Amino acid sequence: MAYSSGRVTIQLVDEDAGTEACDPQPFRGQSYEAIRAACLDSGILFRDPYFPPGPDALGYDRLGPNSEKAKGVEWKRPREFCAEPQFICKDMSRTDVCQGRLGNCWFLAAAASLTLYPRLLYRVVPPGQSFQDGYAGVFHFQLWQFGRWVDVVVDDRLPVCDGKLMFVRSEQREEFWAPLLEKAYAKLHGSYEIMQGGHMNEAFVDFTGGVGEVLYLRGHTPGLFFALRNALAKESLVGATALSDRGEYRTEEGLVKGHAYSVTGTHKVSLGFTKVRLLRLRNPWGRIEWNGAWSDSCPRWDALPPEWRDALLVRKEDGEFWMELQDFLQHFNTVQICSLSPEVLGPSPAGGSWHIHTFQGRWVRGFNSGGCQPSAETFWTNPQFRLTLLEPDEEKEDDDDEGGPWGGWGAAGARGPARGGRTPKCTVLLSLIQRNQRCLRAKGLTYLTVGFHVFQIPEERTNTRNPGEIGLRTCEQLLHCFGHGQSLTLHHFQQLWGHLLMWQATFDKFDEDTSGTMNSYELRLALNAAGFHLNNQLTQALTSRYRDSRLRVDFDHFVSCAAQLTCIFCHCSQHLHGGAGVVCLTHRQWTEVATFS
């Protein structure tokens, strides 16, 4: 194994040094600006060659070429059946998005939630698009797909049946951003029918790049109202589902079982000495509302002061309604929340900041697919990632006095013990995403059953290791690095032993206080002495990854870091002329290289 790390320098650069992470990648290489300019020059309206109108765009089974639902469908541009089409009307609201003949309430409920926050909406639906100025029959939308934004271009030929839009529509008949967004989503995944059935969190994540989680409700769920109120305050997207074993059906109370609703608001009112906690929900159909307590026609509203009643109540069949928390818990089974990333929220969101770490990997049969049972002998071969939580949440008082599993929601940022001597807590959200599974539906494939386990490493296991000692995970890295994933030959073992001795000597030299650990400054010097020339950003990234809860790096983690850098340096040197030079990687590129090294 030829290795000379001193001849290669790796620099971690900001994304804007290359392609920005927030700059969307053109889907199928189609540039909206280029297409629009070409169409305007030629005077021809855009016709999308990658998603042409026809049976294949509609679907593959119930909407397939020979299906009854696909008969009589025409593809028309809005100008052909609307006198004055608008992309987005000025008085757009969450009640505009209405479901059509497609069973994609999960998508529509998420889109309705998106309209609550114009900043989020305009990230997905770029402004400046119009059916008047510069109209060329082309529109574009930006969706998050597995770690990056993609820009999806569509023409405005929409499926129409009996003179009406077949699928999603706006309550304002002249508004068309929603059906065009639906078409872009259908194009991204292959057809409209692929959108049949799903979970709101899928669309939430695709609209924001956030992290989705599901709360399974019980008859009494302490802390839920507080959690929902704070989630909406942090501009999280929130939805709820009334699960059903027999598809969608309407109940006597006006709810639709097996249906997805968006949660659009919370409010607490006082009736005498009683506090009433209200949730505002919306049916994406744009009709069929709850008719129980606190519904639009409920007389309880008359007991409220007029200014409260006027601010909260809209007596209109628009699919939106209020209901009390206890009624909500009786009729709904799950709540889905999508927490947004710093890139979407900006540098100073209302609730604090999140730190995002992305790992990419895969299970390979016969190599690292160790099964789902921790008791199995092969379980340890599954991909593993170690996470150290360093910053406790800021504790917030819950004036509802609910407590419970979600009563302490807060943003990371503060350090030190929590109030009252309680053990500090640190909120972490873990999300496991499968690539491209929805696109494979047309081939009869569904989501794979996958999952993950979270294990707490006992304090004594993290703090009592011998300073000359290295762990099993690091040994695996060394075998992979020096043996190319195979058994070590004598020559490779000699190389490995030589590097271990060198790293031991380097570690001892820069562990000036002989504590068995190094701080970030000592780590920087040690890595440089070992032949790894890194810039400040990369050193910071490595320190953040390999430090422990005391912000120190022990010998095991130093060897793990050095072994990984050895692999990466060797890999990069093979792609440089003469094997020497400077390699600049963005954060995303570094993550990809580091994951597979």
| Largest sheet, strands/sense/barrel | 6 strands, antiparallel
From the helix content, strand content and strand pairing, which structural class follows? alpha+beta
Molecular shape:
globular
**Number of E-type strands:** 21
End-to-end gap: 15 Å
DSSP helical segment count = 18
Main sheet: strand order: 10-17-11-14-15-16
Total tally of structural domains: 3
Uncertain runs are 1-7, 15-21, 403-419
Give the oligomeric state.
Answer: single chain
Estimate the strand proportion. 15-25%
- Computed CA radius of gyration, to the nearest angstrom: 28 Å
Helix percentage range: 25-40%
Residue-averaged pLDDT, rounded? 79
Give me the secondary-structure topology.
Elements: E1 8-13, E2 25-26, H1 32-42, H2 55-58, E3 74-76, H3 78-81, E4 97-98, H4 105-114, H5 118-124, E5 138-145, E6 148-155, E7 158-161, E8 164-165, E9 169-170, H6 177-189, H7 200-208, E10 211-216, H8 224-233, E11 237-242, E12 249-250, E13 256-257, E14 259-271, E15 274-282, H9 306-312, E16 320-324, H10 325-331, E17 334-339, H11 342-345, H12 459-463, H13 472-483, H14 490-510, E18 517-518, H15 520-529, E19 533-534, H16 536-546, E20 553-554, H17 555-573, E21 581-586, H18 587-596
